[in-house]
Amino acid sequence: MTLSAALERGRSAFDARAWADTYAALRSADGEGPLGVEDLERAATAAYLSGHDDDADAYWTRAHRAWLSQGEPTRAGRCGCWLSLTALLRGEVARSAGWLARTQRVLGDSACAEQGYLQLLTGLHALAGGDPEASLRHHGRALAIGEEFADADLTTLARLSLGDTLVKAQRVAEGMLLLDEVMVAVTTGEVSPIAAGITYCAVIVSCQSILDLRRATEWTEALGEWCASQHGLVPFRGQCLVHRSEILQVHGRWPEAVAEADRACEVFSLPASPGMAFYQRAELHRLWGEYDQAEGAYRQAAARALDPQPGLSLLRLEQGRKDAAASGIRRALAAARDVHGPDGGRTRAQLLPSYVEIMLAVDDVAAARQGAEELDQLAARLQAPLLRARAEQAMGAVLLAEDDTAAAIERLTGACHAWRELDAPYDMARVRTLLGVACRRLGDHDSGQMHLDAARSVFRELGAAPDLTRLERLALRTAPGARGVLSDREVEVLRLVASGRTNRGVAEALFLSEKTVARHVSNILTKLGLASRSAATAYAYEHGLV
Questions:
Q1: pLDDT in tens, 128-182
Q2: How many CA atoms lie within 13 A of 16 on its CB side?
Q3: Which of 179, 344, 404, 407 could serve as 163's disulfide partner, Cβ 3.0–4.6 Å?
């Protein structure tokens, strides 16, 4: 291919937004002879959008120098701004600061739109340094300059940064209004592809940070459609990839979710990289019952300075290591004790559903109730539908453990409706499992069976092996004819009683007090309508519990 043919092909591909083709053609042309400065900028854009960040940096750097040599400091400054911004998005703070300082020197006091980009970058560095008020001031100046010079990219990125900063400062309603306005500009094609890709991912991350699953899902779907319209585009990067995987997981698209998690792990391949991608991969392995793979991925997350909670504690619970599960989740919740901190209690809100589940599993119903009540309060304050669904489910499970079955059904029904609204089949199946138990406890075996059958169908379709196993155990324990439903702890006690152990022997085996064991035995006899330990032993053998 001749130089002119390669250039023609690259420029045509650029106009058609075929970024992989643009990158390949212009790279080929550059091998035949140095590209002109405008083609260097095209090559930088195509390289960035097709996922070749190092080459994008190299092309922008060459364009920056070429514009300077031609006496065009403003055009050189624009390249410097892109270099600073993309470095900051990769977490390369020092590199970004270096390009920011260099561009400030190159532009001096000249009146141009690029001054707005400098304000934008200064605001982003202030936010990264923990000064949201300074960040808001700089972003406000950037927006004013963008509007003065009618620069659509600058005004969009400035509004994006203002909205994101307001969300981080717990001014969520104000922030989300700005972010929604930003997305209108993006979806109507008012901004360049780089600005659009940055905006899509930033808005998705902001939505996930406030547990706004509906918005995150809507903009993720829009981003997918936008990507499909541009050949060779690689817009999902790092944290955005992880959140896409999380969204796919909630919606029951687990194979796609693990594929996105794997891609994110490749992006975050260095030891110093964030552990979110590896944690998300571990979660999917755990849900499938692939415990060895889950263990390895949780360790990868921990090696990257991410506390692998609550997933690791849930893994320990599923492995039968209840004490380790309880210790882990208690420690994690204690570390996230400040509900009035910078995240407004959202870290605790992420931990509390698992805390409630684990506390119920270790028979600490009082602690589980405290956790469910706190989750209820956080859900009321944060007004996130995802959190409301989790709170209803947690409180329903606690009420069921407290034998307040009618109240449990009310809360669990609310949770079921909430998960249905969020299109979350796995979570809805888990709630329907609890509803099945509750209905059977009230003697409504037909409704109970329908709930359990529906849950079983979803678990099978998703490949959720651990949940299927738990469901079968529940179905056995709650078969028609039993007048009550035994908790996991009560089943353990019954098995040991049926083996001939005294209360003292059971207490020693389960590390409980004799008084607690006596209470469990009394509850077992009451729930099953039995008169003696020997009758309980017979029941255990008849129902395959031993």
A1: 898 999 999 999 999 999 999 999 999 999 999 999 999 988 889 999 999 999 9
A2: 13
A3: 179
Task: For residue 339, give both structure tokens.
Answer: 């509900």
Helix %, strand %, coil % for the chain, to 5? 75, 0, 25
C-beta separation of 144 from 156 below 8 A: no
End-to-end CA distance of the chain: 77
529, amino acid identity: G
Residue 480 has pLDDT above 70, yes or no: no
Token pair of 151 as six digits = 């620069």
Write down the pTM of the prediction: 0.78
C-alpha count within 13 angstroms, C-beta hemisphere, residue 154: 26
Q: Which of 359, 453, 369 is nearest to 404 (CA)?
A: 369
H helices of 422-444, where? 425-441
Structure tokens at 275: 């552990």
Range 282-305 average pLDDT: 96
Backbone angles phi, psi at 242, to 5 degrees: -60, -45
Q: What is the DSSP string of 272-339?
A: TS-SHHHHHHHHHHHHHT-HHHHHHHHHHHHHTT---TTHHHHHHHHTT-HHHHHHHHHHHHHHT--T
Widest Cα–Cα separation across the chain: 97
Least confident of 2-6, 108-112, 387-391: 2-6
| Contacts for 486 with CB less than 8 Å, ≥ 6 apart | 477, 494, 524, 527, 528
> Contact at 8 Å (CB) between 378 and 345?
yes
Q: For residues 450 and 437, is the Cβ–Cβ distance under 8 A?
A: no
Q: d(Cα 172, Cα 146) in Å, to the nearest integer?
A: 24
Q: Note whether 432 and 455 are within 8 A (CB).
A: yes
Give the C-alpha separation, 81 to 118, whole Å. Answer: 7
Supply 290's token pair.
């692939």
Contacts 24+ apart (CB under 8 A), 107-110: 107/73, 107/74, 107/77, 108/73, 110/73, 110/74
How many Å apart are CA 291 and CA 465, to the nearest integer?
Answer: 11
pLDDT at 544: 66
At position 421, the amino acid (one-letter code) is E
Contacts 24+ apart (CB under 8 A), 267-274: 267/237, 267/238, 267/241, 268/238, 268/304, 271/303, 271/304, 272/304, 273/304, 274/238, 274/239, 274/304, 274/305, 274/306
Cα 354 to Cα 184: distance, rounded to the nearest angstrom: 37
Distance CA 529, CA 526 (A): 5
Task: Answer yes or no: are the C-beta atoms of 245 and 280 closer than 8 Å.
Answer: yes
What distance in Å separates the CA atoms of residue 481 and residue 479, rounded to the nearest whole number? 6
The C-alpha atoms of residue 140 and residue 181 are separated, in whole angstroms, by 15
Q: What are phi and psi of 126, to 5 degrees?
A: -65, -40
The total number of residues shown for the chain amounts to 546
Where do the H-state alpha helices sit in 336-404? 346-361, 365-382, 385-401
Q: Dump the DSSP string for 432-499.
A: HHHHHHHHHHTT-HHHHHHHHHHHHHHHHHHT-HHHHHHHHHHHHHT-BTBSS---HHHHHHHHHHHT
